[in-house]
UniProtKB/TrEMBL annotation:
<protein>
    <recommendedName>
        <fullName>Zinc-ribbon domain-containing protein</fullName>
    </recommendedName>
</protein>
Amino acid sequence: MGGYDNISLKPCRNSKEIIWHFTCDSCSGWWSIAASDQWSPKKLFCPHCSFKHIYNKANPAKTGDIGWV
């Protein structure tokens, strides 16, 4: 069945990754950070212009932002 008949199968490990996308209010550059479900960003800086940001989940999305994230 599918070429696995004569092979000893072992369980595999897995992990889940969330990709966070951010847009800088200063230069409009964007960047992404891959992390786990438990990661909660607090302070961020823009990798393009070094502008410092404080992440607040309660901040409303801006016009044009994807609302389902």
